Amino acid sequence: MSSVHVSNMVGKLEGFKAISTNTVTNDFCIKQNSSNGKANNICKICYSHGMLKSYRKNMQPSLQRNSDLLSSRPLEKHELPTFLDAFLRINAHGELINLQHFENICAIAEHNPHCNVALWTKRRDIVAKYYKQYGKFPANLILVWSNSEIDKIKTVPPLFHKVFNNVSHDKFVEQQNCTGQKCKDCLACYKFDGANVIVEATKLNGRVRKD
User: Fold this and answer.
1) Which of 33, 177, 193, 209 has a Cα-to-Cα distance from 114 of 20 to 30 A?
2) What's the CA gap between 79 and 190, in Å, rounded?
3) Gap between the Cα atoms of 136 and 85, Å rounded
4) What are phi and psi of 141, to 5 degrees?
5) Does residue 202 lie in a domain region?
């Protein structure tokens, strides 16, 4: 019986668990990462593509199992993972694949009502489709829209709670409020009452990108 793979995060996300999928087989991610995208598209310098194709290539099988499982059918009740944690990260790698994927994430959130489940996504279309069908989201699900345009700080779009923006290291310096601290020491993205417009300097291989 397949089960949802849960990752124990390191680095900036040390102390968090995450449910992720395989970036390099996601059609949306492949298209965004290609050279056909806009020059200022953050997906063109995607950390996940780089990691999963090189020094973290061994993660792909586990993430691919999640991609296949979460996007193909509703999880049975006994398949929903239970967390004792206060916070859970969705999409440390990967992106929403389809509506079924999002429905399963929502089911996991509802199964863990004590846990704030923070989901990063660019797929506003899937979020809107879910809302049109169900009319609400789990009360503990924090929706973070990942703005794909570098150096264009956007506000929170409808249906979302927060927006995550990327900027060049030397631009919008005073507005940068994601500045290298560990997420567990900040939690702005993981609490409903935290900052709702997040701004971070672009990074390459975990370091601030200055070229």
Assistant:
1) 177
2) 24
3) 24
4) -95, 120
5) no
Between 2-6, 82-86, 109-113, 200-204, the lowest mean confidence (pLDDT) is in: 200-204
Angle at 23 (CA atoms; ends 80, 160), nearest 5 degrees: 65
In total, how many domains does the chain have? 1
In whole angstroms, what is the distance from residue 150 CA to residue 139 CA? 30
Residues written for the chain: 211
Q: What angle do CA 87, 123, 143 make, to 5 degrees?
A: 30
Which pLDDT score, from 0 to 100, does residue 1 have?
47
**Hey, what's the torsion of the CAs at 31, 53, 103, 118, to 10 degrees?**
-100
User: Cα separation of 159 and 157, whole Å?
Assistant: 6
Q: Residues 199, 113, 70, 154: what is their CA dihedral angle, to the nearest 10 degrees?
A: -20
User: Is residue 180, in this structure, part of any structural domain at all?
Assistant: no
Identify the domain containing residue 65 by its residue range: 7-153
